[in-house]
């Protein structure tokens, strides 16, 4: 195990700082299918050298999926105790507590990043700067600025990238997309997306108590780019349930709330199928929003402009128990999470987070329809699509060219919730035109030593 040093990180000096002007290109269209890159010949039988950052959390299952066909040579987690299973399954892999040590010392083909939201961008950018292919768990980034940086870095480095929203790779997702694009429900004007999240505390204040840091946890590294705060464990008699390993999701400094956590799943099919780009405006209401945490429940409205033959689309978001109006599908008992696309010929409704199953309604009744000819390739799964893409030089459908604008659009909703203001968005200029407070929240300040690498 390598310990963090005190005088390294020379490669990070001169890196981007929070609030720096971003002149990256505006959102481009969603990629309809995998796109071949300039040739980087590899044998399809190659075994890739992989590293996993966050191997004690979601990264464990990511690691296990990748390890079926490739070599795990480096592991990283800030909690040695949580990383025990991953280390046991790959005892020859070098273990690090600090991802910066891993990128300093290892020579990899690809890196998996499965950390809390606030620390996705650092290792992902450092990996791409070294020419490593990257898989990053959803949501892709913590801020809009980071989404622009990751997309630009992926374009420059020409590496194979994927966000970990696995629904993109399901057959049902791709069939539903073909139905929407094939005109089965006509021109879509409204989309309704909802989730039963949060299932973690939101709408709370920062705890005032301090607890001893668990002996296996490197709290300073868990905080990473976030401002220092004391470690605190949960209390049985209070709303605060602790930060690590799970309840960080509701805190603005670490997570992105119910919207950031679940929209990358539930809003994924509507965004992809309709080839949505940047919204022109976002407005909504959050109940119980605080300076520290996302609201207990919220509703939002995103306005997307017309594109090609498709007219404008309004996307409605509901969480915390809110549901769409019942008259959208009279007589249908909507599940606690799902989405609905309303067209001028019918409605597509999925009672699932990923869209793997769906029904089409015409005049309020389930309709029979002819599935359009297949236009999208089918996938071996989110991890294998990425790994095979590295070997055959083909981008997965969830690549950063798609995932970054998608994540950016959803994160704009959090700006509306945090400021309580309508967000008027100029994507080309990367500017909130009507709110200085929201403009400030496009980026964040990085703790010294955790500034982002330029690519």
| N→C terminal distance | 28 Å
The tally of beta strands, per DSSP, is 16
> Which stretches of 5+ consecutive residues score pLDDT under 50?
1-39
Query: Which strand order do you get reading across the main beta sheet?
Result: 14-13-12-11-7-10-9-8-15-16
- Computed structural class: alpha/beta
Explain this structure.
The chain is of the alpha/beta class. It has a domain at 10-165 and 379-400: NAD(P)-binding Rossmann-like Domain (Rossmann fold), CATH 3.40.50. It is 25% helix and 16% strand. It has twelve helices and 16 strands. The protein has helices spanning 59-67, 84-89, 99-105, 121-129, 144-157, 171-181, 219-223, 257-266, 268-273, 382-392, 400-419, 436-440, and strands at residues 49-53, 71-76, 94-96, 110-113, 133-136, 161-163, 188-194, 281-287, 297-304, 313-318, 338-343, 347-350, 359-362, 365-366, 423-426, 431-432. The strands form two sheets. Strands 14-13-12-11-7-10-9-8-15-16 form a ten-stranded mixed β-sheet. A hairpin with an 8-residue loop joins strand 12 and strand 13. It is globular and about 60 Å long. Residues 1-39 have low confidence and may be disordered.
């Amino acid at each position: 195990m390598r310990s963090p040093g005190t005088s390294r990180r020379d490669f990070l000096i001169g890196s981007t700082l929070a609030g720096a002007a971003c002149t990256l290109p505006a959102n481009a269209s969603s990629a309809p299918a995998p796109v071949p890159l300039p040739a980087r010949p590899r044998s399809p039988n190659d075994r890739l050298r992989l590293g996993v950052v966050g191997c004690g959390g979601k990264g464990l299952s990511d690691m296990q999926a990748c390890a079926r066909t490739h070599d795990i040579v480096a592991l990283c987690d800030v909690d040695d105790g949580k990383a025990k299973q991953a280390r046991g399954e790959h005892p020859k892999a070098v273990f690090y507590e600090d991802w910066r040590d891993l990128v300093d010392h290892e020579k990899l083909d690809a890196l998996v990043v499965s950390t809390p939201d606030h620390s996705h961008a650092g290792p992902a950018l450092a990996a791409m700067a070294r020419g490593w292919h990257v898989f990053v768990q959803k949501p892709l980034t913590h801020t809009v600025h980071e989404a622009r940086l990751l997309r630009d870095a992926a374009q420059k480095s020409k590496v194979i990238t994927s966000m970990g929203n696995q629904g993109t790779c399901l057959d049902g997702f791709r069939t539903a997309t073909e139905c929407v694009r094939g005109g089965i429900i006509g021109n879509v004007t409204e989309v309704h997306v909802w989730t039963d999240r949060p299932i973690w505390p939101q709408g709370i204040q920062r705890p005032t108590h301090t607890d001893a840091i668990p002996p296996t946890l490197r709290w300073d590294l868990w905080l990473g780019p976030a401002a220092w705060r004391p470690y605190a464990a949960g209390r049985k008699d209070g709303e605060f349930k602790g930060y690590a390993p799970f309840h960080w999701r509701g805190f603005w400094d670490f997570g992105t709330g119910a919207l950031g956590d679940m929209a990358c799943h539930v809003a994924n099919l509507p965004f992809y199928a309709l080839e949505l780009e940047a919204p022109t405006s976002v407005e909504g209401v959050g109940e119980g929003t605080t300076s520290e945490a996302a609201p207990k429940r919220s509703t939002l409205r995103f306005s997307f402009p017309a594109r090609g033959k498709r007219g404008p689309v309004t996307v409605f978001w509901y969480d915390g128990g809110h549901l769409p109006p019942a008259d959208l599908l009279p007589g249908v008992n909507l599940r606690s999470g799902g989405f609905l696309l309303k067209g001028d010929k019918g409605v597509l409704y999925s009672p699932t987070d990923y869209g793997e199953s769906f029904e089409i309604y015409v005049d309020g009744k389930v309709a029979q329809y002819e599935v359009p000819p297949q236009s999208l390739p089918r996938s071996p799964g989110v991890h294998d699509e990425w790994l095979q893409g590295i070997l055959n030089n083909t981008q997965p459908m969830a690549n950063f060219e798609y995932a970054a604008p998608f994540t950016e659009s959803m994160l704009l909703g959090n700006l509306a919730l945090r400021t309580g203001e309508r967000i008027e968005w100029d994507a080309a200029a990367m500017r909130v035109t009507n709110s200085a407070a929201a403009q400030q929240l496009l980026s964040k300040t990085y703790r010294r030593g955790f500034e982002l690498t330029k690519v």
